[in-house]
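#structure-requests
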Amino acid sequence: MIVYHGSNIEIGQIDLQKCRPYKDFGQGFYTSIYLEQAQIMAERTARIYGGTATVSCFALDDEYQKIPGLHIKQFPEPNDEWALFVMNNRNKTFKDYTNLNCNIDGKYDIVEGPVANDDLVALLNLYLSGTISMQALQSEMTFRRLTHQISFHTEKAIGLLSKEA
């Protein structure tokens, strides 16, 4: 399969140290199976940081989930666990790295699931502040247009990607 990464520069060599922390699934290299989603992210990144909106393409084995030795976390759809996972990874004061509902320490090589876009982040913040319940959060999430991301958090996972021309 082809996965796409939207940025303000062409990505030839992936450097995990240059990836921003406190993202949905932790610090890592984020891709999507949707070209349109990567293009939107590229335009957003270029608008914020300068540069030129650029989508880099990478090949990933369709059967990557079956590769032995990889620690993979998957969220087929938004749910309580996904919301908690995103909140913990985005929370700069969260320090319980042994918690399985975070990837700040890179315990998962790959994480796959929905993107917490700005609307969802606002909902998560309402939940965190106690303004809405988990049930309300889940109910609201079902009405949002969801996207998809596959994030790579370790050198082992990055090694599964090969640059496409």
